[in-house]
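Progress narrative, Year 2. Work on Class I SAM-dependent methyltransferase from Acetobacter oryzoeni advanced from sequence curation to structure prediction during this period.
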Amino acid sequence: MPSPLPPKAERLDIFMARANARYYATKPLLSDFITAPEISQVFGELLGAWATTVWQNMGCPAQVILAEAGPGRGTLMADALRLITRCAPDFARALDVHLIETSPLMRQAQKQALAPYVHPTWHDRIENLPSGPLILLGNEFLDALPIRQFVQTPSGWHERYVMDEAFHLVPCHAPALPDGRNLEPDTIVELCEPALEVARYLGQRFAAQPGAALFIDYGHHSTLTGDSLQALRHACPAQPLKAAGEADLTAHVDFTALAAVAQQAGGHVYGAETQGAFLRVLGLMERTEQLATRATTEEAAILRSAAHRLAAPEKMGHLFRVMALASPGLPSPPGFMKGADV
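Result:
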């Protein structure tokens, strides 16, 4: 039988939010992992080109918000702005750049990275962005948002709480997932309420104002369930409940649930495609070869290795998924060959 709830136990999402807030506020920047923009400049350039096409599909509004959620060191946005400034000067002049970031440490790094291009405005939440046409980018943003976990046992459903580096089970009602999937016996179900709030907000916003959002993250686009909570400490897998604030806590993104919520709110959903397929359609290999032909032999090898790492199925190509949310009246955004899931 599950133990009674100890007085100091925290719900898992509260524990995860507190631990990650401390981690991102105090640890060296992205010291435990490397993200796609840090692997190759081509990644950010392709997303800059993606944003340019979306802006053109909007009718080239004279003012548009280009925002990034979870900008890391600012590398992705800097690479995107470099390409936009060079190849789409009209778009560059229309831009108002905003960043969703809570860590003062990360904000300082982003300020330095973007200084040659813009002076961005920072927000703690996507919902705080000003009104108007919006293009939002989010790479490995959703995976760090806190999750709740529910466990089905012979005595019914229970929610996981945390105390003294261990789980405690508390009886609860069966979780209600927005896509209405059937939950099998002996199941662990994860629910990321902040991510669902983001999807709901964007769906409602894009139903009323022109815009599109692109999310790239590791996760699944199916009815899968199970425990995906994980931690990285000193660049190695770690026990998620130990040494709170000393490790980066993440969980797989449930793109199926996000799509259901965004559609219910009035947005249009595209994907989720695999990252490899998406980047190849955008021109990952062609742009890499352009750079490689102007590079030294050693630099060219690094560029091609980076492209392989981003796109190969056995690397990041299938582990990461790409989903777009957009206003219903806009043309299909680049990279989504199958069109919208409706």
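The radius of gyration is 20 Å. The CA atoms of residues 29 and 163 lie 28 Å apart.
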